[in-house]
Design brief:
With 341 residues, this protein is of the alpha/beta class. The protein has 13 helices and eight strands.
Length: 341
Amino acid sequence: MTSSLSKLTSSRRRFLKHALAAPLIGSGVGLASAASPVAKFQRNERCMSVLKRLRGPMASVTQPYNRDFSIDHGALRAWVDYMCENKAPILFMTYGDSELGFLSEEEIEAVTRTVCSQARGRALVLGGTGEWWTNRTIDFINRVEDSGVDALNVHIGGLCRNEDEIYGAFKEIDSKTQVPLLAVDRKYSLDLMLKLAQLPKVIGDKCHEELYNYHKFIRETRPYHFAVVGAGQMKHFLFGYLIGSPAYLCPITPFAPKIGVDFFNALERGDFVTAKEMTFKYEDALLKVTGKLGYPHCYKSLIHLSGQYKTTLMRSPRTGNTPEQVAELKAFLLKSGMLPS
């Protein structure tokens, strides 16, 4: 059985090597249709530098709270160190996991500065905006540029009534800021994604689409040096990687970074069998337990159980998970080896 799997993997790699030719974002690996155009769209050096580093598992920045619900910046700095020491390549502020809708603009800026100053270039830092009107978003981006943030996710959410308004907002933000930007799609059409991919500083999209549209966005934006990153789960990225997705939001990396890094390294060396087995062993099994705990509550509980955060607190109207609620999760993590005993 092992021999057959090895032969299958070897055959697949030979096929991909000869039949798929265009470069991946930021790498020399050929995994695109031979008929697809090679990227000719020119971005500035700053954007290309971020794209080159935008590879691997992205650890979402989950907010640690003190007992009075203020942000525990000491715990946040310790978590950043833990991620960097364990080679997590990307720290990512996303609207849901990072609870940006529960933070003031001043708090989002403070968290951005804490993460960037503690990372000190050891990891790529992708910040995020709130869901704000365009001028407020522009002012925020320009204000935090000196924090050292590498790029920013622009969260528009449901503020716009149609795709013309979405594109207009991104076009204006792109023209009035210098920081590389990422879109965060919410049922965007391929036509809109192609238009966004041709804005000079919009370098990628955090893709929430299901598998086939995720793949479609990856394939069709290839000529534009545009990174379509998976919004979550190893099993989606397992296939997205093969056609050019460079990174993915990993539910495991924020508390067990070695697993997320090992999974990506397996893909990089062409060991797809090991990568597939890791999705079954870790991700599928974990999601069966965390699904009962709520989102993003479960992520904070995971980081707390790993010893990085003192509390599982969430800001009202959310409530953090209690020790009784996470007992099953703790037992699973210890049994699976995802946490030290």
